[in-house]
């Protein structure tokens, strides 16, 4: 990876050019730079899946859809956000919710859309359900804690250290917090009165997934979001059969591509919650673009609570 000067990209007929004020980094961005993510863009590529900024130029088709120069927006794509300017299809650009800063807006879409598709679309969450969130201090985990509370769920946040758990509790005050993976099963069963978790949100894999197979409730949903631990777990088919729970794979972006009407509804729902002040992303650090190495190093060393954001114009 290197910082280089390139021509400013120009929009096509259906595109929006954005002066990027903030670009949020997530674990997929880190994996993509190593060739370890499921999507592998051809080299060279500009990393970054989500950002926020100001519209600076438009194609005619994008203009007919209502966008104007000066609009404050969020944008998303597989790549292209860690830059001073980016070009995005008009359909991948949304208004920046008014309560959010550019840095917070950059950190909203990917993490909260993943949480929404997981908990609401695929998890069928109902108010009062018990949800265990693994990796609760990470970008998608912290978003799930915040969203679950807004939906009226009873949240058990699981982190890898006491310090991270204290940070999660200070930010979003989940009903309960645990440090795992040792002892999670017994604690979850005790907290839920022996029932187990209705939903388990797992972006971690490894040992905590193994534990979740032992405490997911009968009729519950174990939501597979990712494998930040580095170990992709396996489970015998007899376990969900005997214990009566479902294992559900979550790819929020792919879900939206396959079901575009649902995808638009999901993005609108997340935006509405943010506009109403019911959810708010946490920015761990906002760094100038020149400090991109430190931003990636923080993810590699698992020091980040929420999202680190780069500021290309700083």
> Care to count the β-strands?
13
Order of helices and strands: EHEHEEEHHEHEHEHEHEHEHHEHE
Strand pairing plus helix content: what structural class?
A: alpha/beta
- Largest sheet properties: 7 strands, mixed
Query: Low-confidence segments, ≥5 residues, pLDDT <50?
Result: none
- Give the helix proportion (percent range): 25-40%
Shape: globular
Top CATH class of the largest domain: Alpha Beta
Into which percentage range does the β-strand content fall?
A: 15-25%
Based on CA atoms alone, the radius of gyration comes out at 19 Å
Provide an overview of this structure.
This protein is of the alpha/beta class. The chain has two domains: 15-108 and 281-311, Quinone Oxidoreductase, Chain A, domain 1 (Alpha-Beta Complex), CATH 3.90.180; 110-254, 3-Layer(aba) Sandwich (Rossmann fold). The chain contains twelve helices and 13 strands. It has helices at residues 27-32, 60-64, 102-106, 109-122, 139-150, 162-172, 184-191, 206-215, 238-243, 252-258, 260-275, 292-300, and strands spanning 15-25, 50-58, 72-76, 85-89, 93-95, 130-133, 154-159, 176-179, 197-202, 216-224, 246-249, 283-288, 307-311. Strands 1, 2, 3, 4, 5, 12 and 13 form a seven-stranded mixed β-sheet that branches. A six-stranded parallel β-sheet has the order 8-7-6-9-10-11, sandwiched between helices. The longest helix has 16 residues, at 260-275. It is globular.
């Amino acid at each position: 990876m290197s910082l280089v000067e390139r021509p400013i990209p120009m929009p096509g007929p259906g595109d929006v050019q954005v002066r990027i004020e903030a670009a949020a980094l997530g674990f997929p961005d880190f994996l993509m730079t190593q060739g370890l993510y499921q999507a592998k863009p051809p080299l060279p590529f500009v990393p970054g899946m989500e950002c926020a900024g100001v519209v600076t130029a438009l194609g005619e088709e994008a203009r007919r859809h209502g966008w104007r120069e000066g609009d404050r927006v969020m944008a998303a794509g597989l790549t292209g956000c860690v830059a001073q300017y980016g070009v995005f299809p008009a359909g991948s650009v949304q208004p920046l919710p008014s309560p959010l800063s550019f840095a917070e807006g950059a950190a909203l879409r990917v993490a909260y859309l993943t949480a929404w598709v997981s908990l609401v679309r695929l998890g069928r969450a109902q108010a009062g359900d018990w949800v265990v969130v693994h990796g609760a201090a990470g970008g998608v985990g912290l978003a799930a804690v915040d969203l679950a509370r807004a939906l009226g769920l009873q949240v058990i946040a699981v982190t890898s250290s006491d310090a991270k758990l204290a940070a999660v509790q200070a930010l979003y005050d989940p009903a309960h917090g645990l440090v795992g993976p040792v002892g999670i099963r017994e604690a979850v069963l005790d907290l839920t009165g022996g029932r187990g978790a209705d939903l388990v949100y797992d972006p971690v894999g490894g040992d905590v997934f193994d534990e979740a197979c032992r405490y997911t409730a009968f009729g519950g949903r174990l939501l597979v979001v990712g494998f930040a631990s580095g170990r992709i777990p396996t489970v015998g088919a007899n376990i969900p059969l005997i214990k009566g729970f479902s294992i559900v794979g979550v790819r929020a972006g792919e879900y939206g591509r396959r079901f575009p009407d649902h995808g638009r509804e999901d993005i609108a729902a997340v935006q509405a919650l943010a506009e109403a002040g019911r959810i708010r992303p946490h920015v761990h650090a906002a760094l100038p673009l020149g400090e991109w190495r430190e931003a990636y190093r923080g993810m590699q060393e698992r020091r980040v609570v929420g999202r680190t954001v780069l500021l290309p114009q700083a």
